[in-house]
Amino acid sequence: MAQARGLGLLLALLLPMVGASRPDTVVRLNKEVLSYVAEAGKAPLQRALQVTVPHFQDWSGGVLQPTRIQILNVHVPHLQLKFIAGFGIHLLAATNFTFKIFRVPEPLHLMLPMALLADTPVSQGSIGTPVVSISGCFSLFDKAIVLDGHNSTAPALLAPLQNHIKAVLQNKLCLRISNLVQGFNVHLGTLIGLSPIGPESQVHYSMIDTPTITNDYISLNINAVLFLLSRPIVLPVDTTPFVLPQHVGTRGAMATVGLSQDLFDSAILLLQKAGALNLDITGQLKSDYNLLNTSMLGQLIPEVGRQFPEPMPLVLKVRLGATPTVTLRTNNATLRLQPFVEVLAPASNSAFQSLFSLDVVVNLSLQLSVSKVRLRGTTSVLGNVQLTVASSNVGFIDTDHVQPLMGAVFEKPLLDHLNALLGMGVALPHVVNLQYVTPEIFVYEGYIVVSSRLLYQR
Q1: pLDDT of residue 249
Q2: CA distance 407 to 12
Q3: Residues of the signal sequence (predicted)?
Q4: Which residues of the chain have pLDDT under 50?
Q5: CA distance 167 to 159
Q6: Residue 337 belongs to what H/E stretch?
């Protein structure tokens, strides 16, 4: 299984964690990733090609002499991967095998150059997971080279010895690669699961149809389902399937990941349903800088000063009734919140009484970033917070007078709360040990694109 994970490196970067529904995410792995995968895959491929060669039956001296053969080294100086349109991936590995032949009176050392070719189609399995297989595998051998310059080896021995080694390798190498690929498919199947977002929420990615493969990239249509308390978040209306345009993101990037408006709508709906966007903002009288008290509010609303001659701390109870909206426009992402804010003050019986309530509209700029495999966000307020009085137990309220105070006591706690939530992030499609490196984010009309290099770390 360890070797399966080793060869898996050749393909793991080509197959994000995927496994049915409409696509809201597209992962496009460009041909630039193949050079990285090939270079990183040389070592595990060399280990995989270390096979056992049975004894050679030597009749050259007229007497049968079983001769032991050992592979001392397998070196892959060149490994090339390329996409085959409509099919999968073609592998070409230039390989040098070094053998020790335990002859009497002294051993013989041979190097056998060969080229290993394999075609690996990528398809969708019956349970929605990606499946890699071997449809064709060939070994092309060059002539063996005797490494012991002082050692003369009769052609009568070298020719049958070389044929013996070639026959063994032809049978074993492709079988070894096929077994490794099957082991990798088992390993890959375990990666289809839930990635945590918060304590009670997860995201699950699954491939919904056969990959699209061109000579330049492999593209996977992926459905992302967000769960809250094991229940999926379902958007209230059906939307048009997401299609990632051809030329978006950074030219030359290894990966181009498109995330649709649907994914953002699902994420913000999850936060609302979880109650995560609600918060209580409490004033502290002992603070050196505390504006959230009846004394400050009484200067703006006389009835508050009359009811509370002594300074008392206030509480802002912020609740999200209306669903927040994320808007994606070219080079601009915004978030609109419409919380209901109730202003409370302590009553004589240790309870709280409602002074007044406000319908609030907050427009926020949304800045997105990627850290390792997680898409994260931060916000900042755009313009002024809009206030409308919903109810009042303290008479007339002039919102123009209250606006500066409410903005001062409301904006920072709200931003701190939002940025802590959005900073946890949502995992992007990935396989284990894979990270996005030096990602760039582009905002388009109705979707965003993450262009990135990839890094595989064991």
Answers
A1: 86
A2: 49
A3: 1-20
A4: 1-20
A5: 12
A6: strand 332-337
